[in-house]
Each structure stands twice: as structure tokens, then as C-alpha cells.
TrEMBL record:
Region forming the signal peptide: none
One Pfam family from the record: CBS
Domain CBS: 17-75, 79-135
Keyword Hydrolase: no
Keywords: CBS domain
Record InterPro entries: CBS_dom, CBS_dom_sf, Diverse_CBS-Domain
Species of the source: Nocardia mexicana
Protein name as catalogued: CBS domain protein
Length: 220
């Protein structure tokens, strides 16, 4: 029999990053960097050395802050250091939260200090715009495992909001079903209840977190 609490795949920076990455060297002139920024519509450029290590970031703000005569000067005198970076194994949700709180429009992804890609806000938008049909299928698969041959619930997912209706043994089973549904990454909250009755909303329930940890400990 398949395990009930199967691990739900988390999306990482390596799954959404873009490459190859347009970069500049520390000795590149500001004029060269500005040309790249405007040509590609970027908000910032990673600055890398001969070995591919990220040594800084040159942003639009850095370029705009340049004084008279600095356009012909090297990027290394204007770049932001140290550069904020992500690791390929960084959780996409954590990357998105960091970029929002730090007001970053892009974040280099490095491994052992070497640039391997970059994550822009548009990459995150594509990653976080989960397909509701896929989410619904994942929730249904979990509930089918839980219920066996007793397929007795209707499931509808819209914008990460799951609505589950049907016959439940009691309130405890409703809580269990809601917690199972919320172990699926991309499900924000669950409305659950019997047909014809007002549903109860569940959001980020501690039980769901315990189930995730149980899955990690059991299957990981």
C-alpha cells in the first residue's frame, strides 16, 4: 500500500532560475554596464571575476548615483558589495519573501561562490502561479489514498483555494482531510464541509505542519 503521508515536492531556486546570465566584469566601464541594462531591460547585473565568482551587483540605482565623469570608470567602484545571493537549494517561497522584503528585482544564484543562474521576479511569478488542475489532482490523490475505495468527496481548486465537500464521519475527519490537503504546496487554505452546509475554513493549520514533518521524517 502506498504511504499516506507522501512527501510533496518543494520548488527550489534551481527549478526556476534563468541562464545563461548576462554579467559584467569588475573592470567593465559603467557605460558598458548601462548599455547592457537598457538593452536587456534588466534592473541589475551580477559582477563576476575571472573565476566566475560573484563579487558584487551593479543596479540601476548604482548607475543613477554615479557622479560626473564616472561613466568611463570601472564598475567595481560603483557596484554594491557584498552581493545578496541565493543557493540552488533555496526554497522558492523563501527567495520570493527575501526579494520582496529587500526590494530586490533579481537575485544571483551561486554554488560554492560560482554564479550558476539568476532569479528575477518574473521567474517567481511563473513558479508561484500554480496550475489549479495540477493542485486538484494532487489533493485528490492524497484523499484517495486516505479513503481507499470510498471516493466520497468533491474537490475544487481555484487560485490555490481548495473547496472539499461530501460526507464526513465527524469534525475530526474534516480536520484530517483539510490538513492532508494543505500538505500540498500551493494550497493556501481549505474550505470543507458537508453538502448543503456552510463550510469551515482552514489555513496553515499546525496539524498540516506536523503532517509535513512526519512525512519528512518517515519518507526522507
Amino acid at each position: 500500500m502506498a504511504p499516506l503521508f507522501r512527501k510533496v515536492t518543494t520548488m527550489y531556486a534551481r527549478d526556476v532560475l534563468s541562464r545563461p546570465v548576462v554579467t559584467v566584469r569588475p573592470e567593465s566601464t559603467l557605460s558598458e554596464a548601462i548599455s547592457l541594462l537598457t538593452e536587456h531591460g534588466f534592473a541589475a547585473l551580477p559582477v563576476v571575476d575571472d573565476t566566475g565568482h560573484v563579487v558584487g551587483m551593479l543596479s540601476e540605482s548604482d548607475a543613477l548615483a554615479a557622479g560626473p565623469g564616472q561613466r568611463s570608470g570601472p564598475v567595481e567602484t560603483l557596484m554594491t558589495v557584498p552581493a545578496e545571493v541565493a543557493h540552488p537549494d533555496s526554497d522558492v517561497s523563501a527567495v520570493a519573501a527575501h526579494m520582496l522584503t529587500s526590494r530586490l528585482r533579481s537575485l544571483p544564484v551561486v554554488e560554492a561562490g560560482i554564479l550558476v543562474g539568476i532569479v528575477a521576479r518574473r521567474d517567481l511569478l511563473r513558479a508561484l502561479a500554480r496550475d489549479d488542475t495540477d493542485l486538484e489532482a494532487k489533493v485528490r490523490a492524497l484523499l484517495d489514498i486516505y479513503a481507499g475505495s470510498r471516493r466520497q468527496w468533491s474537490i475544487d481548486v481555484t487560485d490555490g483555494h481548495a473547496v472539499i465537500r461530501g460526507a464526513f464521519a465527524d469534525a475530526t475527519e474534516q480536520h484530517t482531510i483539510a490538513a492532508l490537503a494543505m500538505t500540498v504546496d500551493g494550497i493556501g487554505h481549505v474550505d470543507i464541509g458537508a453538502e448543503g452546509s456552510a463550510p469551515t475554513r482552514h489555513t496553515a493549520a499546525p496539524l498540516a505542519e506536523r503532517l509535513r514533518r512526519l512525512a519528512d521524517e518517515t519518507i526522507g
